[in-house]
Amino acid sequence: MTPITVVEGRRVALTNLEKVLYPAAGFTKGEVLHYYATIAEALLAHLRDRPLSFLRYPDGPDGQLFFAKNVPAGTPDWVTTSEVPRSDGPSRMVLVQDLPSLMWAANLVTEFHTPQWRVQEPEEADRLVLDLDPGPPATIVQCCEVGLWLRERLAADGIESYAKTSGSKGLHLLASLVPTPSEQVSAYAKELAVEASRAMPGLVIHRMTRSLRPGKVFVDFSQNAARKTTATPYTLRARPEPAVSAPVTWEEVEACGSHGSPEQLVFLAGDIGPRLEAYGGDLLAPLFDAGRARSLPSDR
Q1: 61 burial class (0-12, 13-18, 19+ CB within 10 angstroms)?
Q2: Are 123 and 182 within 8 A, CB to CB?
Q3: What does the pLDDT look like over 151-169, one tens digit per residue?
Q4: Counting CB atoms within 10 angstroms of each CB, which of 102, 169, 210, 276 has the fewest?
Q5: 10 Å Cβ neighbour count for 86?
Q6: Structure letter (DSSP) for residue 295
Q7: Other CB atoms within 10 Å distance of the CB of residue 225
Q8: CA atoms 81, 87, 90, 91: torsion sign
Q9: Are 150 and 192 in contact (CB under 8 A)?
Q10: pTM of this prediction?
Q11: What is the widest separation between alpha-carbon atoms in the chain?
Q12: How confident is the model over 204-246, as pLDDT tens digits?
């Protein structure tokens, strides 16, 4: 029989708990679910009211990976869904609003990916994101160098930024905005990427062209487009080990960027609970402070 647990009054089916999903660490599906239950408060704040895209990997990172945006078949009727605009017409998507919904979604074995806008104001971004993606032999060390430059450039426009690892190879910079059309945010982010490539031509590119990528950091501004999503803070990633897209301090970024090593900014599932405790909660909590939200520069 399929195990059933009751989460805040909701019956949630949990399956294949002993299945190893992360072979390099022997990390099981049961441990995945335990991780999400343990850090739920921090993760839910970043998921709430944002339509969810699932990157599913039911047989682990070496198996089939596929994106799902529409409400999956068999979704319980108590899971919140909402109709959202899409380029090919309106679509109904999942909103993970509470712990039962989170555990149901985690049981599907997913990475959580969300847009930069909330369902109440579709395509009005309340966050800006810059995805710093290194082309080997560049690593997250070079991403940190670029991230520090972008931090100062954003600060010059009165915008405070925060950092998290991608949970894969790179670094994400996030900032809180007064709701702004995604098209305008994308244009501003592209300007920043172009400026960075001009300021650091030996290190940064703003074009996706693969032949330009080796040894450079690609500043991907495109994830600000309304249709795009980014790995949500605290999501596990489909990697050989249970790596997390983990918020980091600027001090950690500086230490890594100053002749550090990529391993300094690798965080696994077991690291996150202690980090939340050590830092007194979510390092990205300021993103939810309306008083810190900024408008884009008026001359843009």
Answers
A1: middle
A2: yes
A3: 999 999 999 999 999 999 9
A4: 210
A5: 15
A6: P
A7: 17
A8: negative
A9: yes
A10: 0.95
A11: 62
A12: 999 877 777 899 999 999 999 999 999 999 999 999 999 999 9
Contact 114, 229 (CB under 8 A): yes
> Which residues, at least 6 apart from 144, have a Cβ–Cβ distance to it below 8 Å?
171, 253, 254, 256, 257, 260, 265
SS3 of residue 218 by DSSP = strand
Percent of the chain with pLDDT over 70: 99
The answer, yes or no, to whether the previous bond of 137 is cis (omega within 30 of 0) is yes
Among 51, 187, 171, smallest CA distance to 117 is for: 51
Q: Nearest 10 degrees: CA dihedral of 136, 164, 275, 99?
A: -120
What are the tokens at 235? 């999501």
Burial class (CB in 10 A: 0-12, 13-18, 19+), 38: middle
DSSP letter for 52, please: B
pLDDT tens-digit readout, 91-137: 899 999 999 999 999 999 889 999 999 999 999 999 999 999 999 99
Element (H, E) at 161: strand 161-165
Write out the two tokens for 81. 């869904």
Tokens linked to 31 = 């441990």
